Every structure is written in structure tokens, then in C-alpha cells.
Amino acid sequence: MKVAVVTPYHKEPETVLRRCTESIAAQTVPVTHFMVSDGFPKGFLDATPVRHVKLGAAHADWGDTPRAVGSILAVREGYDAITYLDADNYFLADHLELMIEAQKSSGADVVAASRFFLRPDGSVLPYPEDPPEQHVDTSCMFIMRSAFGVTPLWALMPRHFSVMGDRIVWAAIKSRGYRWVRVEEKTVAYFTLWASMYRACGETPPPGAKEFTDMSKQALEWWRALPDTERRMYERTLGMKVNFGE
After folding, report:
1. What angle do CA 176, 86, 7 make, to 5 degrees?
2. pTM for this structure?
């Protein structure tokens, strides 16, 4: 199976980017790693075993534009599967092997991986993974060619939705009836700065922690303020009903 990993990056430190790229280089199956710079290319990547794609500007959409560009390249270059890895995360060495095995045994259009959560210092935060019926993170999506129709949504969704872009793509996967399967073994290392996760574990959020509720509330308020005609236009573009649980 010909697999592409797409990683958008912006201004992450070299040590963080190397951790990401080295985790892909260490996979137990062959893979092509597309590192897509969002306006700030790092020269050292040119000497590493990645496809370094350099965009000419930053797009301020949580990596959605570089994900879309990397996806288009993978589609046109004949890859069988596309998966994503945020630059500040990493995969365990057998991650992609397990994704491929799960897909072959199930025939699924999409495989959902499982995460373990890390504090900024690399220690484990005992936060439970979300049920896939509710949410699958970007770095946990393994999408087969039969479901490539959702990959343009990284570019087609309105910018206001970028903070929850993975939720939009996962909702589209479910609404379009693609078959999916979950791998329970946790092979995606997810460094979290979401404040709610720390509070749920009885901890004080670390410096720089973000409030997802506030950001999602802003998106919801923008959506509700749109005229009905614009809402319908966006829903036609996305190919699904947007309801925010309403």
C-alpha cells in the first residue's frame, strides 16, 4: 500500500519538527512524508527524507491549507491512503503498520487511530480518548482512496471552522456513509495544550493553554449570524448539514 503522511508546519522549533519527521522515518512500513510549510520554510528539512513543500504565505487556518495542498499532491501522485500528523505530535513506530492491517482486515474506507496525551514536558496526561462516534483527531485519520472525496474539505470549509476542522471532516466521513473502523491500541502521541483536558484530570492548565470552548463558541456565533442563503451555500459546498448539535 502506497501511503502519504501530510504534516503542515508553521513556526515550530527544529527540535519539535525533527521529532515529528523522525517518527515517520522510523515507521515499520514504507511511507512518503509531505512536510508542508505554512509560510515559514525550515531549510534543514531539505536534507531530510521528506517531500518538502514550501507555500509562499501563512494562511492562519490551523494548518488546513497545507493539509489540502499535501492531500492534492498525494491524490494526483497515486497514493492509496492519506494520513495526517500535526507537527507537534508523533507516531509510534508501528502506527502505520497497524493502520494498514486494520484496513486490510476490515475493508474500511477510513481507519481511526487512538491517542495518548502528553503534557508539554512529555509526561503522560491521563485523559481518556474521545469515542469515535463523537470525535476523531486529525492525526488519527487514515483515509483510503475510496474516501478521498473528503480531503478537499480542508480547503472548502469556511475559515471560521478551522479551529474544529477535524470535526468537520469527521462529520463528513460519517454523513457520506464511509465505512470506518477504530484501532484501540494507542499509537499517536498528542501533546495537548487544551485547558479543559487538564481541568478534567484535576490539574491546573500549563502556561499557554487554550480554551477550545471559547473558540468553538465564536465559530457557532458566526454561523448563527449568517443569512439562511449563505448557510445553505456552505452546506452545499461541504456536502452535509451543519447543525452544531442543534
Report:
1. 85
2. 0.95
